[in-house]
Amino acid sequence: MRTVGLIAMLALCDPVISEAQAADIRLADAATTGALQKSLQRAGVYYSADSPLKAAIRIEGRIVPGDAKKLDALIARSNLSGYIPLLLDSPGGSYDEAIKIADNIWLTPVVNKGAECNGACSIIFISGRSVEGDGESPPDRYAHREARISFFVPDFDFPDNGSSKALQAAFQNAVRFTGFLLRQRKKWNLPNRFFQALVDKSVTWQSVAKETKINVIE
Amino acid sequence: MSSNSPRPVARPVLAVVASLASLFGSLPSAAKAADIVKMDTGDLSAELQSFDGKGRPALWLKLTGIIVKGDADRLEEVIKENAPQGRQTGRIRLLLDSPGGSYAEALKIADRFRLTTVVDAGATCLSACAVLFMAGRIEDGEADRHMHASARLGFHAPYILPPEGTFSRETLTRAYKLGLEASVALLERQKAFTLTDLWIDSMLRKGPKEFAEVTYVHHAIEYAIAVFGVRKPSIDPRIMVTHLCLNRIDPYQRPDAYDGVFDRRGRVKRDVAQRSMQYVQSMVRAVRKSGRRYILKAVTDEMAGTECTAILTVRGRSLAPKLMPEDKLYRGKDAAFYLLYSRWDSLPKIATQAAKAPAAGSASRARDEPDGSDIAKALIGEVVKEACGGSAGKIDDKSIILRDLTGDRRPDLVINHADIHCDREGLGMQSDFCGQGGSCSIQVYVRQGDRFKAALDWLGGSIRIGRGRRPRLSLSGHQTGRARFRWKSGRFRQLRR
C-alpha cells in the first residue's frame, strides 16, 4: 500500500525514456557467473565444488516502468531460487520502478568492476539484504572497489518546462522520497551519511561503504 | 516539450530557487517580520515563573507572528540589548506563538542560538515555528522544549510556494534537489536537536495544508516534548502508577500499540480500547501498596523483558512520584511526570478558565444572582469539555448538585464525573477523570464572589450530603474507602471517624 502511494507521488519525477533505451534484463553468461563466483568467494561468500554459483541475473541500461515485471518473469521462467546475484550496470532511470524492484528483492545486488549504478539504480543496490527465516535482514550487497556508484540524484529528464504546480510537486516528491528512505532506514541499514550522499556529490560511495555495510569485492 | 521550443523561464524565481532561505514557507514576500520582545518576569504566569527555579533567572523572550528572513538577526539584536554579555548570560527562554513562516529562517535561528522553547497556554505554533520549537535544547542531545497542554503544536513538511509561471527543466530539477536538501537538513540536525525518527517521519508525511499535531500523551513522549499545565489526574494512585509505567515504556511496545488504534476520525477503536482496558486492569492488579508507597514492577511477555518500577510516595496530601530509572528525556519537572500519569489516548487539555465565571455581570453583587445558575452552567460546560479532552460531551442532571455546602446561602456545585458521557468511542466515552477501574472523580466547587473555586476532588464511588447549614459530605469509593468532610474556616476538613 505504502509503495503504491509513493509510486503515484514519484510519477512526475520519472524520466521520459523511449522503449529503445529500456534496460536489458537477462541471465548472465557462464563466464561472467564464474568470474563473479571467484570475486564473491574472495569477499567471504562460501561456494563448494558441489554447489557452485549456478546463475546470476544482470540488468544493463536505464530502468524503466515494467522492469520489475520483466525481472519477475525472468526469475519464474528460469526457475531460480536461493542465492542469486543481481549484476547492476545502469545510469539510473525510474525511481518508482526501482522502488518496486527494491521492495520485493531477494536477489543480492552486485556492481562489478567498471560498472555504474546511479540514482534509481543505487536504490536497488542499497536495498540488498539477505532475508532470513526469523525476519532478520542484515545488509547484503557487493560492489567492486572500482565500481561507479552514485546515490546523488542525477539530473532528471524533467519536461522542458513546467507550471508552478509542477515545480511544487518536484519539491514535495523529493521530501516524500526522503521520508520513504527514512522509513527503510533500519531495514536497509542506511546511516545518516548515506542521506548526505543524496545531496552532496562529493560524498562517494566508498566513503560511506563501511557505515552502510557495503561489501567491497576485489 | 521538444528541446528547441522556447523556454519561458521566470528569472526571478530562478534566483529564488537558488537560495534556500527565501524558498520555504508560505509567505507573501511583504509579510511582516515576527515580533520579538523581552518579557518581564512579572508578566509571566506562575507556571512559567517556576521554570527558573533557584538559579539565575533566564532571559524570557517572546516571538509572535510570521517568521521571515532576517528574524535570526533581529533575535540576536534583542538578546544583545537585554543581555549585554551575550549568549553566555544564563538561559534564554523563547515563548513561541506563530503560525509559521520561513523554514530556512527557523533552522537558522535554531542553529545560531541554544534556546529553551516554550509554547504557552492557548498559544499556537505551527509549521516553521514548530521546527524552531523542536530545536529547543540545553546541549546537543538534551532536549528542552515545553508545551502547555492547551497549546496547539502542529508539524508538516517544508514546501515551496512559487509564483505562477513556467519553469525550465533546470529549475524543476533544482526544486527536486532542494526538496532533498530540505529534508536531509533535518537528518543532519537529528542528534543535535534530539529529533526522533518518528517525529521526522510524521512531519515529512504531512503536506502544506495538513498538520501532525501533538494531541496524545504518546505523541509528546515519542517526540520528547515536556508538557506543562497538566493537572495531576484525580484517579486511583494504582492507575497512576500503571500509566506512569506504560507511558514510560516505548508506546510502540504496548499491546495496544498505536498502529490501527485510531479509526479514520481519530477515535480509539472499540476493540483496541477493550484490549487496552483489560491490559491496564491486569497491570493495576499488580500494583503493590507498601505502607504509604505504591509499587509496580512490570515485567511482561509483551514488553519482552522491559521493567518498570514506579514508586508513589504519599507525602502529606500529595503524591510524590519517582520513576526509576529516571527518564532523562523529560525536564519539565513535575509537569512531565503528570503527563506520564495520564492516559495514553489523550493529552489532558486543561481548561485554564475552568473555575472562572463568565465576565458578564461580574460587577453585580452575589445576592443579585440568587442561584448563580448561569455561572454554574458555564463551569459545568468547561468541566465536561476538559473531561472529554476537548470533545463534546454530556452530563446527566442527576450528577450535578447545586446546593449550599458552605453556609453562605449561595449554592455550591458538586459534579460527579461518573455520569459524563463523551462523544468518543470505547474507552474514550468516559471522562478523563475516570480510571479504568471504574472510579471517577467527584469534584466540589464552592462559590466565591462571582466565581466558583475548586475545593475538593475525591476519587470514586458516591457522595451523600447531610442536613444543616454546613452539611456533612460523606464520600465513599471501593478503592479509596470512606471519608467525611465539612466546610470549616475556608476549606473542607476531613472529620474523624
- Highest-level CATH class of the largest domain in chain B: Alpha Beta
Could you give the count of β-strands of chain B?
26
CATH superfamily of chain A: 2-enoyl-CoA Hydratase, Chain A, domain 1
The count of helical stretches of chain B stands at 12
Strand order of the largest sheet of chain A: 1-2-3-4-6-9
The two chains with the largest interface, and their residue counts, are: A-B, 32 and 43 residues
CATH architecture of chain A: Alpha-Beta Complex
Mean pLDDT of chain A: 82
Work out the helicity level of chain B: 25-40%
How far the N terminus sits from the C terminus of chain B, by CA atoms, comes to: 91 Å
Number of strands of chain A: 9
Describe the biggest sheet of chain B?
6 strands, mixed
The fraction of residues assigned to DSSP E strands of chain A is 5-15%
Distance between the termini of chain A: 39 Å
The CATH topology of chain A corresponds to: 2-enoyl-CoA Hydratase, Chain A, domain 1
Strand order of the largest sheet of chain B: 1-2-3-4-8-12
* CATH topology (fold) name of the largest domain in chain B: 2-enoyl-CoA Hydratase, Chain A, domain 1
